[in-house]
Structures are given as C-alpha cells and as structure tokens.
Amino acid sequence: MNLIYTSDQQELIDAADGFFTGEHTVEYMRQFLETDTSDTTPSLWDNFAELGLLGLMAPEDNGGLAQDFSVMAAIAEMAGNVALTEPLIDMAGISVPVLAEMGATDELNGVVSGALKVLPVNGLSGMVSHADEADMFLIGEGGKARLIDKNNVTLTPLKSIDPLRKLFKISQAGDGLDEIDQRGTILNAAFLCGLSKRMVTLSVDYAKDREQFGKQIGSFQAIKHQLANVHTQIEFTRPIVQLAASQMGRCVHQAKISAIDTAMLAAETAIQVHGGMGYTFEVSLHMFMKRAWALCGEWGDRNHHINILETLILADDAELGPGTTFSY
Amino acid sequence: MDAVFSDEQNGFRQEVRDWLSANVPNDRLPSLDTQEGFDLHRDWERKLHAGNWGMVTWPEEFGGRGCSLTDWLIFEEEYYRADAPLRVSQNGIFLLGPTIMEYGTDAQKERFLKPMAAGDEIWAQAWSEPGAGSDMAAIRSKAVRDGDEYVISGQKIWSSRAVFADWCFGLFRTDPESSRHHGLSKILVPLDSPGLTVRPIAQLDGDPGFAELFFDEVRVPVENLLGPENGGWGVAMATAGFERGLLLRSPARFQAAAARLVKLYKQNANRLSSGIKEQVLQAWGDTERFTAATYALVAQVDSGASISSEASANKIFWSEMDRAMHRTAMTIMGMHAELEEGDGAIENGRWLDGYMFSLAGPIYAGTNEIQRNILAERVLGLPRQ
Known about the structure:
heterodimer; A: 328 residues; mainly alpha; Butyryl-CoA Dehydrogenase, subunit A, domain 3; 3-stranded mixed sheet; 3-stranded antiparallel sheet; 9% strand; globular; B: 385 residues; alpha+beta; Butyryl-Coa Dehydrogenase, subunit A, domain 1; Butyryl-CoA Dehydrogenase, subunit A, domain 2; 4-stranded antiparallel sheet; flavoprotein (chain B)
C-alpha cells in the first residue's frame, strides 16, 4: 500500500507536463479557433511519438515504456490542464493496452510509432472526437474488443459547443466493453481534474490582476472562499481517480462523479470570478470551460455512473464501512 | 502507485481485529462528557495501553509499537469497525503527544508521554480566549517569569475535556511588550493548580464538554515550557497541523457512519423521497474520496514530506462531509429525528448526538472560514487582506 508515484514515474509525468505547458499554450489553441479543416491545422502528433507518450503503456517489445495505467492517468490530468486538443490520451491510454491484450501487434506498433491512429469508441454515446483523423476504430461488441477500418463506418459531423472538439457520430459504436469503458472513464475523470485545476489557476491569476475598490479582487474573502472550495474539491477528487486507475472496480464510478461535480463547480466559480470578462470569447477561460462541459458527458454521464453505483452500494451484500475501500 | 495491502499489513489488521473483538465493551459507554462516562473511557484507555494499542505509531519506549502511519490507518479502520469507544485522551495522544515528540526535551518526553499513553493523565486544550477565537494571535493571558516559575494570569475558553481532565496545554504571552503572534509560549499546566478555576460550560446536549478556565496567579515550574520561550506560535501551529490534518480525524469514523447511513436508508427506503438516495450515495462516495486522499497523504508523509497549509483542505472536507451526512440521517428519520431515547428513538438518539457534534466540526480546530483563508493565501497565492 503506497499511493504515491515513484521518482521514475514522477519524472515521466513531469516531462509530459513540461511538454504540454510549453507547446500547447492558449496561443497554440487559438489557431484552431480560426481554422476548421484538419489539413491546415497544426499537430503535435510527431512529438507525442518521439516523447514516447503514444507507447507509454505498450510492452517494451513493441517499443513502449510498459508503464502502469496510474501513470497514464496522471498524464491525462496534465493534458487536461492544457485542454489538449488531440486524442493522445484515449489512444495511448485505451487503444494501446487493449491492442496489446488483443495481440494486434501490427496495429500496436503502428500506433506507438505515430503512423497509425486507432481511436476507441464509447458505446454509450457513439460520439468520437477527431474521428476524421482515425485509420481504425476500436469498439467493444459482444464482450470482445474489435477493430473496424475507417472505410467500413460512416462519420457524421456533430456541432459541439467546444470549438476545439471536432466531433463525429460513428455509424457503428458497439455495446461497450469493460476494458475500454473503465479506462475511458478514469482518463476522462483525470482530464477533468486537470481542467478544473487550470480553471482555478486562470481565476487566481485574474483575481490578482483585476482591481476594484482600489484593491486586487483576490484579496476579498468572497473570492478567496469560492476558490478555496474548488481547490478542496480538486484535492479530494484526484486521489480517488488515482486509486481508480490503480485498482478499477467501484471507485471508477465514484471517480467520474466526483470529477464531474468538481469540474462543473470549477467552471461556474471561474466564470463568476472573471466577471463579465469570463463571458467573452476573447478571454481564454471559455476553452477550458466548454471542454469541461463536453467531457462531463463522455464515457458515461453522471446519471449512468450514479445508477451503477446505486446498484453496487445499495445491494444487500455490498461491503461497506472501514477497510472496504481497497480491492474494490 | 500500489493500492494493495502487504501480507504484513493484513497480518497487523488481523491482530488488531482479534484484540478488539475480545476487548471492546459490548454496550456503548455513556458520554465522555459526564463524570461516569469520562471514568469509563479512561478505563478503556488503560485497557488499550495494557494491550499496547494506545498509540501504535509512537516509539516503543513510550508505549507504542513504532508503526507507520499506514498501519495507523489500518488500526483506525479496525477500531471503528469494532465500534470501539471514543478516545477521551485524544487531545493528548493525537495533538500534544506528537508536539512533545517534536519540540519537547528528553525530560519532558519521559515525564509526559508515558502517563499520556497510559490514560493516567488526560489532557485538555487551552488556546482560545474570550477575545481570541479565530484571531488567536490576540491572546492576552500572560505568563510572567518569576525565578524558576511562570506566574499565569488570564482566561481561556472552549477548553475541551477540561472539566474532568488532569492537565491542559495552552498559549500564553510571555513577553509583555509583544503583540500578535510574537512573544507567546506554549506552557503545560496541571488543572488542579492553586489559583486555577474551571467553570464547566454545558454544550448543546447539556453535558459539560468544555469549560472556561480562570488563571489567578497560577504558578508552574519553567520546565513546563514546551519549545522555545516566546516561540510558542510555531509550536502551536505544529499542533494545529496535527489537529486539522491526519491524526484527529482518520477516514474510518466517517466510513463507519456512512455504512450506518446506508443501512438507515434501506430500513426506511419505502417512505423516502427520491432525492434522498443520491444524498446517501454522496455520503458514501465522499468517505471513499476522503479515504483515498488520506492514504495518498500518508504515503507522502511516510516518504518524508511534511504537511502544513494543505491540512486546511482536509479539515474543510471532513467536517462538512460529516455535517452533510448527519443532516441526511436527520432527514431520513423525519418525525423521529428529535427523539433522544426510549420509544421511537432510532439507535437511541445516536444520529442526533452525531448531528449536534458534526455542527462543531466546522468551528473547532480553526473555523472553516479561517481554513479557507489559509488555502486561498498560502496555497493558491491570493493576496492577504
């Protein structure tokens, strides 16, 4: 029992964080607001392959780093902190381990090298971001993982409020698979934590900068306490997400629910702290806020996870109370 | 990142479980804020100590087992699973004890830790004053050096356990020229000292859970100074860190309450409105979040990190979770919620007691408003007022 990353793991996480914050800046993101075809948009994909991020979870024999899923979850949080636009996390954290489990070596090697894009599909929504860039899709059907070529599905563009999310409805989504959905849920929750954290950071920066009544507004308790509330919720969401990444089980659902509640609180608090500026397209906050709204419903929305949790926790044979948190 | 208990940890858990199942009293003890209940809880502390279970994280020389903090969490899980009595010695073992280990002289460790662990000396806190609550740096009670003694005069309030306890620890102004958090010292005082008057204060439930202390030229030897003279603020902050952070409220007590809440819900489900179900799930989920976060924090501390301002988030979370959980129970009990005991009273009024106690959580150990200021200023970096 040791819920802490080793120094080697932390180094990997910090390196990813450094790359994301260095390259995936708000200025970088703004380029996407003005373009809408993939031919003309910039991409960090080659860098992801070079940095080993795509192969983070792949076996060493396949050119990967064979890291734990919990490391992937920490990196997903770092990706959330910059509202990463490209589907690195789903591909590296879901497709790669499932391809390895399937023994799909060619596809796995392709993904790790950056040459092939295999996007996982959540059977509940059938909605896939950046689906137009995928070569193949990974679905769960009849209790098995299955690969589908892009030529065998139809993609219908959808219009998300998040301008950086190129969203499509896929004609064949499958009926889900734990190996895909649980990983998707956890990475989504971790990403939401990162978004929440960034929204707090943006708000703190704004509250230190903006003056009213001759003072920085961040010196007022009315502002301080709201941001302290969000901070507290984040501090008590990240660990359950990390635990879910380590042991799966019923805490996966709790992790997602907490991440949703925290992200919605973070978004509402952030816009309140930003005042009128937060309501503009010009200020960066909206890019993080809209991503949070979008991701709250992805990989199982709140209702979905609450309903599952209800059956698990209210069951007659449910094991509850002290000493029942781990190994569930 | 490893979420599996080792064989040693599982063995330790079993050992704790076996001892508790053989020794925990069958009936719940009377409130520790009554003389009878206090004495019975003291007896229980002595029994724990005799079994070497008083404070498992303490060094063996002081009656502990030298266990890690992770072991401590396991111990607590078994303790609350067994529904063992509340710890009447908590001010001492959870707060003052660790402070003495950090700041005390060898003689002080020898003098105070053993009787504290044994339940022979029960400690009360003496920090707040009528004019110094959230603004603790406004303390006015003074301790004047006179040869080998301090002469203490002034007034303390909200002193938990002081009515029946043996000793108190508090902050006193030792430099008369000083102001705010300078010139304060942490001093240990026997509650039966001449010149010290203890006036019980009845709490919400009518029992004297805390007291007002009047010091009229109370003399204590200078050996009772803990830490540096005039450096008491730093010593007090260390104690406050223990109180807000890990030791005072481990997750197990809340997990036990959440499990009871699920049971209460199921017994009453057919007459409850649909919204209650989600409140019950929220209570359970929040205790899981608190557990995961505490194990993560303990892993950091066991690897050498220290906690300071982060403890404020902890205190906000557990106290507000506890209050929300008990309010849900009150809602479920509905027309029976007001019944303290006897006919119609659910679990003999235990939820009602718990609800009243939960209302104190966001107030004691530094109000949650103060905790939010600390987080905003020292963790988030917002400007001071």
